[in-house]
Amino acid sequence: MTRGIYRFSFKFLSAFVGIILLGSLPGLFNGLSINPAGYIESVKGMFGTLFTIGELKYRAGQEEYFLFPHILEPLQYSLIVLLGALLLAFILGLFFTFITMMLPRKGKKGFKLFAFLFESLPDVFIIALAQIGIIWFYKKTDILLLDVAAYDKTYALPILILAILPTVFFYRIMLLVFEEEMQKQYIDLAKTKGLNRQVILMVHVFRNTLIGIFYHSKSIIWFTLSNLFILEYVFNLRGIVMFIFEHPTPEIFTISFILLFIPLFILLALWQLLAEKVSKEEAIV
């Protein structure tokens, strides 16, 4: 238990300091020249800002507003879209994996080929295709699924669009680890005891592959986060990314990323603990 606390604390502090160092980078440059002393002062100033974060303001038009609690609204919207897309992608990836594992060999090849081809498409292309699809649907039905000029928050469509590629990634990873797990000896033992394939997959294989899924899910989460930046910009969603674009200061950039990082770190930590507990195996991160 103590080892786990130290491990998570070290990872959290390392990432926290890394975000501050990244957010302070503008202080490294003085025109076209590099200014190390200026960067050190910028880092010190950024740490100082965190201690007086309640007094930080931003400008909107001719008015100034306190950063808190105004930043929490776009942050909440972005987190709902991001976490909703990840949850949907995980469920769909698991569902398609179970379906594929129940198919004969020829059916599996077809699913794998489709997933491979779809995975090779650039993420920007998927988002652009979704935008074109919305415009086409509007022209055909006069129903606007997503108004990029509106300030009303929509959730279902952004979550669906953002979940497309993560679903394919989860599916490919789950299918790979499931097939590897099905080659192990205990699967033959389970079959001799009369357990059907559905029970073996849903109970034994899924439980024993959680650690493998966890290893790959971290990269999927950060990939989905990067796609969220593109999605918010292209569709003019009023999330944390647009807030950063509209108020591009090092302080707002740094604080926004810290606020995004904390819930994602907690999510990964809980996911790791769950995977370790269920599979009875410690994940090495």
TrEMBL record:
GO terms for biological process: transmembrane transport. One of its GO terms (cellular component) is plasma membrane. InterPro entries: MetI-like, MetI-like_sf. The keyword Transport applies. Residues 75-271 form the ABC transmembrane type-1 domain. The chain crosses the membrane at residues 12-29, 77-101, 113-137, 157-178, 221-245, 252-274. SUPFAM superfamilies: MetI-like. The keyword Oxidoreductase does not apply. It is found in: Cell membrane. It is a multi-pass membrane protein. Keywords: Cell membrane, Membrane, Transmembrane, Transmembrane helix, Transport. Coiled coil: none annotated. Belongs to the binding-protein-dependent transport system permease family. This is ABC transporter permease subunit. It comes from Exobacillus caeni. The lineage of its organism: Bacteria, Bacillati, Bacillota, Bacilli, Bacillales.
